[in-house]
Amino acid sequence: MGGVNRCDVLIVGGGLAGCSAAAELAERFPRLAVRVVDAGRGASSEVMGFSAPVEQEDSPERFFDDTLRNANGEGDPCLARVLADRALPELHRLEALGIAFDRTPDGAYDTLRAAGTSCPRVVHCGTSTGREVLRRLGVTPERRRVSALLLREGRVAGARFADDETVHCSAVLLAGGGFAGLWRFSSWNKLLRGDALLFARSAGAALDGLGLVQYEPTVTVYPEALCGFPVITTVLNAGARLLDREGNSLLAPGEPVPCKRELARRIAEALAAGRGWEHGGIRYDFSGVDEAEFARKYPGYYRKFRRFARSFRELFFEVKPGAHTTLGGIRIEPDGSTAVPGLFAAGECIGNLHGCDRLGGNAGLEVLVFGRIAGASAGRFAAAQPTGYPAGAATVETMDVTATPPELFPAIGAILDRSCGVLRSERALREGLRALAKLPVSPHGELARLTLEDALTRLLRQSGAGADAAETPE
């Protein structure tokens, strides 16, 4: 197609983070020209609900404490504070848009308790909150893939699309999701391979915590028709059980459901010990779940699950951990800015919020809160920029993320599956680095290498071996 165009703010990513940013820009900076482009389906439409401290025993402070506790010393307290304090205002903003969140007969919010939380906190609109919010925001992204960013004198100048069109702009907001799609077995779309992180790094922004990955504990391996589908863990608080091949529960009687990191570890250890079922997973047993209550709380899931058994007394899945949320990513400030002037980021592509583990419901909130914050910041930046650039200023193009050959992705995914799963070892991570070094050089192979190196550094630090030992694989 080719050609050159101009806008004030370019948003790369048309999910909840990008569309929330666009809505904020339209509200606060109506005179700015904004384009929203998206390469394809991400994770936003699958968001069931989000965290909000609406229960009587809950509070923003308790929410903040839960978030930092699960981050296990790795999360940024400033970002966690923003998330907790903006939860209720974001809920009320969505209600003002007309979204009716589920209520109990007495009028209270019908909250769910996610794994690892101290009280119920996930508000929802059926099982399709993400889809409903996207519909209400009313933003229609262009179906385009960005291949590179443009810089002039160290600040953002625009972007080039895969069809060679160039757009000049004052600010770019990256909201393109995480990179769990690089793993062969993951719960998300294979388009989520980390383009936003590659843009940011090659532009000069810092990446943080790439080795921190949340593995959804209960990704289906059987029945085959649902392979790769993550079965919600909130049902473990409502009678569902995780059973090994001998029928032993992975949770002690009366034990609170632990965080997803702990659940994934228990399942992975049971599978490594040979206690899995015939299809290679742990049995997720629904026989103790009240079918009528489940149908009321999870109507979309009920319709999906009901096809696989005559009743919930006979319903089960085989599940194992799969790469789900990449907790590392682009380092941002609380206003969504990066180290590169004019470059902002929001959503799963950021990397210093959740730390070692993400609470269920926090991803759905994060994209809304930081999408709006980053949108407002990008708008302020763009509105303050003079038109034009100094005479003679050269345009520099970042790496072309479309340069990874499609045939390399299965090899990269297999290496990550083997080397960077729930149960990690120095030997496996070093073997993964050696295997990556044998592949042709590519942008996404480089992202995988950085991920394995970060994971290895963290593992050696925990064992007391020191970071230097992780720099070069033997």
Describe this entry's structure for a reader.
The protein is 33% helix and 17% strand. α1 (16-28) packs across α9 (362-384) and α7 packs across α8 (299-305). The mean pLDDT is 92. It has 3 domains: 4-148 and 155-161 and 327-384, FAD/NAD(P)-binding domain (3-Layer(bba) Sandwich); 218-321, Succinate dehydrogenase/fumarate reductase flavoprotein, catalytic domain (Flavocytochrome C3, Chain A, domain 1); 404-474, no CATH class. The chain has helices spanning 16-28, 60-71, 77-96, 129-137, 195-203, 260-272, 291-297, 299-305, 362-384, 409-419, 426-437, 443-463, and strands at residues 4-6, 9-12, 34-38, 49-51, 122-124, 142-143, 146-152, 155-161, 166-168, 171-174, 207-208, 213-222, 241-243, 282-285, 316-326, 329-330, 343-345, 395-397. The radius of gyration is 22 Å and the shape is globular. Strands 1-9-8-7-18 form a 5-stranded mixed β-sheet, with no helix packed on it. It has a 5-stranded parallel β-sheet with strand order 6-3-2-10-17, with helices on one face. It has a 4-stranded antiparallel β-sheet with strand order 12-15-14-13, covered by helices on one side. By secondary structure, the protein is of the alpha/beta class.
Would you kindly provide a brief summary of this structure?
The chain has 474 residues and is an alpha/beta fold. It has helices spanning 16-28, 60-71, 77-96, 129-137, 195-203, 260-272, 291-297, 299-305, 362-384, 409-419, 426-437, 443-463; strands at residues 4-6, 9-12, 34-38, 49-51, 122-124, 142-143, 146-152, 155-161, 166-168, 171-174, 207-208, 213-222, 241-243, 282-285, 316-326, 329-330, 343-345, 395-397. The protein folds into 3 domains: 4-148 and 155-161 and 327-384, FAD/NAD(P)-binding domain, CATH 3.50.50; 218-321, Succinate dehydrogenase/fumarate reductase flavoprotein, catalytic domain (Flavocytochrome C3, Chain A, domain 1); 404-474, no CATH class.
